[in-house]
Amino acid sequence: MSVAERLRPTTPTRRWVGLVGAALGWFALYEVNLPLWDWLVYDLVGLDPSSQLGSGVHFFFYDSVKIALLLVGVIFLVTVLRSFMSVERTRAMLGGKREGVGNVMAAGLGVITPFCSCSAVPAFIGFVAAGVPLGVTMSFLIASPLVNEVAIGLLFGMFGLGPTLLYVGAGLGIAIVAGFVLGRLKLERWVEPFVFETRLGGQVIDPAAGLTWEDRIQMGVEEVGVILRKIWPYLLVGIALGAAIHGWAPQDFFTQYAGAGNPFAVLIAVLVAIPLYSNAAGVMPLVQALHDKGLPMGTLLAFMMAVVALSLPEMILLRRVLKPPLILTFVAVTGAGIIAVGYLFNAVLA
Question: Which of 102, 100, 90, 161 is closest to 126 using CA atoms?
Protein backbone atom coordinates (compact mmCIF):
# COMPACT_ATOMS: atom_id res chain seq x y z
CA MET A 1 0.00 0.00 0.00
CA SER A 2 1.39 3.40 -0.99
CA VAL A 3 1.85 6.35 1.35
CA ALA A 4 -1.00 8.12 -0.39
CA GLU A 5 -3.32 5.17 0.12
CA ARG A 6 -2.45 4.84 3.81
CA LEU A 7 -3.08 8.53 4.46
CA ARG A 8 -6.09 8.89 2.15
CA PRO A 9 -9.24 10.21 3.89
CA THR A 10 -12.11 7.72 3.90
CA THR A 11 -14.71 10.22 2.70
CA PRO A 12 -14.77 13.48 0.72
CA THR A 13 -16.37 15.19 3.72
CA ARG A 14 -13.47 14.23 5.96
CA ARG A 15 -11.01 15.42 3.35
CA TRP A 16 -12.56 18.87 2.95
CA VAL A 17 -13.11 19.31 6.68
CA GLY A 18 -9.45 18.51 7.22
CA LEU A 19 -8.37 21.02 4.56
CA VAL A 20 -10.58 23.78 5.96
CA GLY A 21 -9.28 23.06 9.45
CA ALA A 22 -5.67 23.21 8.25
CA ALA A 23 -6.31 26.48 6.40
CA LEU A 24 -7.92 28.07 9.45
CA GLY A 25 -5.02 26.88 11.61
CA TRP A 26 -2.54 28.38 9.13
CA PHE A 27 -4.29 31.77 9.12
CA ALA A 28 -4.54 31.74 12.92
CA LEU A 29 -0.80 31.08 13.29
CA TYR A 30 0.01 33.78 10.76
CA GLU A 31 -2.16 36.34 12.56
CA VAL A 32 -0.81 35.61 16.07
CA ASN A 33 2.83 35.44 14.95
CA LEU A 34 3.57 39.17 15.35
CA PRO A 35 1.71 39.81 18.63
CA LEU A 36 3.12 36.58 20.09
CA TRP A 37 6.74 37.60 19.51
CA ASP A 38 5.97 41.19 20.58
CA TRP A 39 4.79 39.81 23.90
CA LEU A 40 7.56 37.21 24.33
CA VAL A 41 10.51 39.39 23.34
CA TYR A 42 9.45 42.82 24.58
CA ASP A 43 7.05 42.14 27.46
CA LEU A 44 8.12 38.78 28.90
CA VAL A 45 11.88 38.93 28.29
CA GLY A 46 11.96 42.71 28.58
CA LEU A 47 14.17 43.61 25.61
CA ASP A 48 13.98 47.18 24.36
CA PRO A 49 12.27 47.31 20.91
CA SER A 50 14.38 50.34 19.96
CA SER A 51 17.67 48.59 20.73
CA GLN A 52 19.75 46.63 18.22
CA LEU A 53 19.51 43.49 20.39
CA GLY A 54 15.77 43.72 20.97
CA SER A 55 14.85 44.43 17.36
CA GLY A 56 17.30 41.79 16.10
CA VAL A 57 15.99 39.00 18.36
CA HIS A 58 12.38 39.87 17.52
CA PHE A 59 13.22 40.01 13.82
CA PHE A 60 14.81 36.55 13.86
CA PHE A 61 11.95 34.69 15.54
CA TYR A 62 9.14 36.60 13.85
CA ASP A 63 10.59 36.30 10.35
CA SER A 64 11.57 32.63 10.82
CA VAL A 65 7.99 31.67 11.64
CA LYS A 66 6.51 34.00 9.01
CA ILE A 67 8.65 32.70 6.16
CA ALA A 68 8.17 29.07 7.26
CA LEU A 69 4.40 29.59 7.19
CA LEU A 70 4.63 31.21 3.76
CA LEU A 71 6.70 28.30 2.50
CA VAL A 72 4.15 25.78 3.79
CA GLY A 73 1.14 27.63 2.37
CA VAL A 74 2.55 28.65 -1.00
CA ILE A 75 4.29 25.36 -1.76
CA PHE A 76 1.21 23.31 -0.85
CA LEU A 77 -1.14 25.43 -2.96
CA VAL A 78 1.18 25.60 -5.96
CA THR A 79 1.86 21.86 -5.83
CA VAL A 80 -1.85 21.05 -5.83
CA LEU A 81 -2.46 23.50 -8.68
CA ARG A 82 0.42 22.23 -10.77
CA SER A 83 -0.88 18.67 -10.41
CA PHE A 84 -3.51 19.68 -12.98
CA MET A 85 -0.91 20.79 -15.51
CA SER A 86 2.53 19.55 -16.46
CA VAL A 87 5.57 21.80 -16.18
CA GLU A 88 6.01 21.65 -19.95
CA ARG A 89 2.45 22.79 -20.60
CA THR A 90 2.78 25.69 -18.18
CA ARG A 91 6.00 26.84 -19.81
CA ALA A 92 4.42 26.60 -23.25
CA MET A 93 1.46 28.70 -22.13
CA LEU A 94 3.50 31.44 -20.43
CA GLY A 95 6.70 31.39 -22.44
CA GLY A 96 7.70 32.21 -26.00
CA LYS A 97 5.99 35.23 -27.54
CA ARG A 98 3.94 35.85 -24.42
CA GLU A 99 7.00 36.07 -22.18
CA GLY A 100 7.12 39.87 -22.28
CA VAL A 101 3.46 40.00 -21.30
CA GLY A 102 4.24 37.50 -18.55
CA ASN A 103 6.97 39.79 -17.19
CA VAL A 104 4.53 42.69 -17.03
CA MET A 105 1.90 40.56 -15.30
CA ALA A 106 4.44 39.16 -12.82
CA ALA A 107 5.71 42.65 -11.98
CA GLY A 108 2.11 43.80 -11.50
CA LEU A 109 1.48 40.88 -9.15
CA GLY A 110 4.56 41.91 -7.21
CA VAL A 111 3.12 45.39 -6.67
CA ILE A 112 0.07 44.02 -4.85
CA THR A 113 2.06 41.52 -2.72
CA PRO A 114 3.93 43.63 -0.14
CA PHE A 115 6.68 41.09 0.64
CA CYS A 116 10.20 41.87 1.75
CA SER A 117 12.88 40.16 -0.33
CA CYS A 118 13.06 37.01 1.84
CA SER A 119 9.27 36.71 2.11
CA ALA A 120 9.02 36.75 -1.69
CA VAL A 121 11.29 33.68 -1.95
CA PRO A 122 8.57 31.09 -1.09
CA ALA A 123 6.34 32.40 -3.88
CA PHE A 124 9.35 32.43 -6.22
CA ILE A 125 10.06 28.76 -5.44
CA GLY A 126 6.44 27.83 -6.02
CA PHE A 127 6.26 29.65 -9.36
CA VAL A 128 9.48 28.08 -10.65
CA ALA A 129 8.37 24.63 -9.52
CA ALA A 130 5.05 25.12 -11.31
CA GLY A 131 6.87 25.69 -14.60
CA VAL A 132 6.41 29.45 -14.84
CA PRO A 133 9.30 30.71 -17.02
CA LEU A 134 12.30 31.70 -14.96
CA GLY A 135 12.52 35.23 -16.35
CA VAL A 136 8.84 35.87 -15.61
CA THR A 137 9.32 34.63 -12.04
CA MET A 138 12.36 36.89 -11.65
CA SER A 139 10.18 39.89 -12.53
CA PHE A 140 7.96 39.00 -9.57
CA LEU A 141 10.94 38.44 -7.27
CA ILE A 142 12.27 41.93 -8.08
CA ALA A 143 8.97 43.84 -8.09
CA SER A 144 7.42 42.38 -4.94
CA PRO A 145 9.82 43.96 -2.42
CA LEU A 146 10.74 46.89 -4.67
CA VAL A 147 7.36 48.40 -5.58
CA ASN A 148 4.40 47.91 -3.26
CA GLU A 149 1.76 50.02 -1.61
CA VAL A 150 3.86 50.50 1.54
CA ALA A 151 6.80 51.93 -0.41
CA ILE A 152 4.50 54.08 -2.54
CA GLY A 153 2.62 55.49 0.45
CA LEU A 154 5.74 56.30 2.45
CA LEU A 155 7.54 57.86 -0.51
CA PHE A 156 4.55 60.03 -1.33
CA GLY A 157 4.22 61.20 2.26
CA MET A 158 7.90 62.11 2.58
CA PHE A 159 8.92 63.36 -0.86
CA GLY A 160 5.75 64.12 -2.82
CA LEU A 161 4.30 62.95 -6.11
CA GLY A 162 7.26 63.48 -8.46
CA PRO A 163 9.88 61.28 -6.78
CA THR A 164 7.20 58.67 -6.01
CA LEU A 165 6.15 58.35 -9.66
CA LEU A 166 9.79 58.17 -10.75
CA TYR A 167 10.47 55.42 -8.21
CA VAL A 168 7.41 53.37 -9.17
CA GLY A 169 8.09 53.71 -12.89
CA ALA A 170 11.75 52.85 -12.50
CA GLY A 171 11.04 49.93 -10.16
CA LEU A 172 8.54 48.38 -12.54
CA GLY A 173 10.87 49.03 -15.46
CA ILE A 174 13.77 47.28 -13.71
CA ALA A 175 11.59 44.31 -12.77
CA ILE A 176 10.18 43.88 -16.28
CA VAL A 177 13.41 44.47 -18.22
CA ALA A 178 15.68 42.51 -15.86
CA GLY A 179 13.24 39.60 -15.83
CA PHE A 180 12.99 39.66 -19.61
CA VAL A 181 16.79 39.75 -20.01
CA LEU A 182 17.24 36.88 -17.54
CA GLY A 183 14.60 34.90 -19.41
CA ARG A 184 16.35 35.48 -22.74
CA LEU A 185 19.61 34.14 -21.27
CA LYS A 186 17.99 30.67 -20.77
CA LEU A 187 19.42 30.05 -17.32
CA GLU A 188 17.12 27.19 -16.26
CA ARG A 189 20.13 24.84 -16.18
CA TRP A 190 21.25 26.70 -13.06
CA VAL A 191 18.07 25.89 -11.12
CA GLU A 192 18.46 22.94 -8.75
CA PRO A 193 16.82 19.89 -10.42
CA PHE A 194 14.59 18.94 -7.48
CA VAL A 195 12.55 22.13 -7.99
CA PHE A 196 11.14 20.79 -11.26
CA GLU A 197 10.31 17.30 -9.97
CA THR A 198 6.78 16.29 -9.04
CA ARG A 199 6.68 13.42 -6.53
CA LEU A 200 4.02 11.21 -4.97
CA GLY A 201 4.93 8.61 -2.39
CA GLY A 202 8.60 9.44 -2.89
CA GLN A 203 8.47 8.66 -6.62
CA VAL A 204 8.77 11.15 -9.49
CA ILE A 205 5.50 11.15 -11.43
CA ASP A 206 3.95 12.85 -14.43
CA PRO A 207 1.39 15.44 -13.21
CA ALA A 208 -0.58 14.87 -16.41
CA ALA A 209 -1.41 11.33 -15.25
CA GLY A 210 -4.81 10.62 -13.74
CA LEU A 211 -4.71 11.75 -10.11
CA THR A 212 -7.38 11.79 -7.44
CA TRP A 213 -7.90 14.69 -5.05
CA GLU A 214 -6.32 12.58 -2.31
CA ASP A 215 -3.24 12.13 -4.53
CA ARG A 216 -3.02 15.86 -5.14
CA ILE A 217 -3.33 16.72 -1.44
CA GLN A 218 -0.71 14.14 -0.54
CA MET A 219 1.59 15.57 -3.21
CA GLY A 220 1.24 18.99 -1.59
CA VAL A 221 2.02 17.63 1.87
CA GLU A 222 5.05 15.71 0.61
CA GLU A 223 6.39 18.68 -1.38
CA VAL A 224 6.18 20.92 1.68
CA GLY A 225 8.21 18.39 3.67
CA VAL A 226 10.83 17.89 0.95
CA ILE A 227 11.48 21.58 0.33
CA LEU A 228 11.46 22.53 4.02
CA ARG A 229 14.03 19.79 4.76
CA LYS A 230 16.24 21.11 1.96
CA ILE A 231 15.93 24.81 2.69
CA TRP A 232 15.69 25.17 6.48
CA PRO A 233 19.43 25.61 7.18
CA TYR A 234 19.60 28.34 4.54
CA LEU A 235 16.42 29.87 5.91
CA LEU A 236 17.80 30.16 9.44
CA VAL A 237 21.24 31.39 8.34
CA GLY A 238 19.72 34.01 6.05
CA ILE A 239 17.29 35.30 8.67
CA ALA A 240 20.00 35.24 11.38
CA LEU A 241 22.20 37.40 9.18
CA GLY A 242 19.28 39.72 8.52
CA ALA A 243 18.61 39.94 12.27
CA ALA A 244 22.27 40.72 13.01
CA ILE A 245 22.33 43.69 10.64
CA HIS A 246 18.69 44.71 11.15
CA GLY A 247 18.48 48.40 11.90
CA TRP A 248 22.13 49.12 11.21
CA ALA A 249 22.38 52.42 9.37
CA PRO A 250 25.74 53.69 8.06
CA GLN A 251 24.70 57.36 8.00
CA ASP A 252 28.18 58.80 8.59
CA PHE A 253 29.68 56.61 5.87
CA PHE A 254 27.10 57.80 3.35
CA THR A 255 27.59 61.44 4.24
CA GLN A 256 31.33 61.13 3.71
CA TYR A 257 31.58 58.87 0.66
CA ALA A 258 28.25 59.09 -1.21
CA GLY A 259 27.67 62.82 -1.29
CA ALA A 260 26.74 64.91 -4.29
CA GLY A 261 30.36 65.58 -5.24
CA ASN A 262 31.36 61.93 -5.68
CA PRO A 263 30.78 60.58 -9.22
CA PHE A 264 30.78 57.04 -7.81
CA ALA A 265 28.13 57.81 -5.16
CA VAL A 266 25.37 55.69 -6.74
CA LEU A 267 27.67 52.70 -7.19
CA ILE A 268 28.86 52.99 -3.58
CA ALA A 269 25.27 53.25 -2.33
CA VAL A 270 24.24 50.08 -4.16
CA LEU A 271 27.30 48.10 -3.00
CA VAL A 272 26.74 49.14 0.62
CA ALA A 273 23.02 48.30 0.39
CA ILE A 274 23.43 44.67 -0.69
CA PRO A 275 24.62 43.32 2.71
CA LEU A 276 21.75 45.10 4.46
CA TYR A 277 18.27 43.66 4.93
CA SER A 278 15.04 45.59 5.34
CA ASN A 279 11.68 46.20 3.75
CA ALA A 280 10.57 49.56 2.35
CA ALA A 281 9.12 50.71 5.67
CA GLY A 282 12.28 49.82 7.55
CA VAL A 283 14.70 51.62 5.24
CA MET A 284 12.60 54.76 4.76
CA PRO A 285 13.69 56.56 7.98
CA LEU A 286 17.31 56.21 6.90
CA VAL A 287 16.48 57.53 3.43
CA GLN A 288 14.74 60.51 5.03
CA ALA A 289 17.69 61.21 7.33
CA LEU A 290 20.19 61.04 4.48
CA HIS A 291 17.97 63.27 2.34
CA ASP A 292 17.97 65.87 5.11
CA LYS A 293 21.78 65.78 5.03
CA GLY A 294 21.78 66.73 1.36
CA LEU A 295 22.38 63.43 -0.43
CA PRO A 296 21.04 63.40 -4.03
CA MET A 297 17.64 61.79 -4.56
CA GLY A 298 18.91 59.41 -7.24
CA THR A 299 21.59 58.06 -4.89
CA LEU A 300 19.02 57.59 -2.13
CA LEU A 301 16.46 55.85 -4.32
CA ALA A 302 19.14 53.54 -5.76
CA PHE A 303 20.20 52.70 -2.20
CA MET A 304 16.60 51.99 -1.21
CA MET A 305 16.04 49.79 -4.28
CA ALA A 306 19.18 47.76 -3.62
CA VAL A 307 18.33 47.24 0.07
CA VAL A 308 14.86 45.88 -0.63
CA ALA A 309 15.58 43.96 -3.85
CA LEU A 310 19.16 42.67 -3.48
CA SER A 311 19.72 41.66 0.12
CA LEU A 312 22.39 39.14 1.14
CA PRO A 313 19.94 37.11 3.29
CA GLU A 314 17.72 36.74 0.21
CA MET A 315 20.69 35.39 -1.77
CA ILE A 316 21.38 32.83 0.96
CA LEU A 317 17.78 31.64 0.79
CA LEU A 318 17.85 31.49 -3.00
CA ARG A 319 21.07 29.47 -2.97
CA ARG A 320 19.20 26.30 -2.03
CA VAL A 321 17.12 26.43 -5.21
CA LEU A 322 19.42 28.38 -7.56
CA LYS A 323 23.03 27.70 -8.43
CA PRO A 324 25.67 30.43 -7.85
CA PRO A 325 26.03 31.46 -11.53
CA LEU A 326 22.30 32.25 -11.71
CA ILE A 327 22.35 34.19 -8.43
CA LEU A 328 25.35 36.23 -9.59
CA THR A 329 23.67 36.91 -12.95
CA PHE A 330 20.47 37.99 -11.17
CA VAL A 331 22.42 40.38 -8.92
CA ALA A 332 24.46 41.75 -11.84
CA VAL A 333 21.49 42.40 -14.14
CA THR A 334 19.26 43.87 -11.43
CA GLY A 335 22.09 45.85 -9.87
CA ALA A 336 23.06 47.33 -13.25
CA GLY A 337 19.48 48.50 -13.73
CA ILE A 338 19.36 50.08 -10.26
CA ILE A 339 22.68 51.87 -10.80
CA ALA A 340 21.54 53.20 -14.18
CA VAL A 341 18.29 54.47 -12.65
CA GLY A 342 20.20 56.15 -9.81
CA TYR A 343 22.40 58.12 -12.17
CA LEU A 344 19.39 58.97 -14.35
CA PHE A 345 17.47 60.29 -11.34
CA ASN A 346 20.45 62.38 -10.23
CA ALA A 347 20.60 63.92 -13.71
CA VAL A 348 16.85 64.53 -13.96
CA LEU A 349 16.38 65.83 -10.41
CA ALA A 350 19.59 67.90 -10.27
Answer: 90
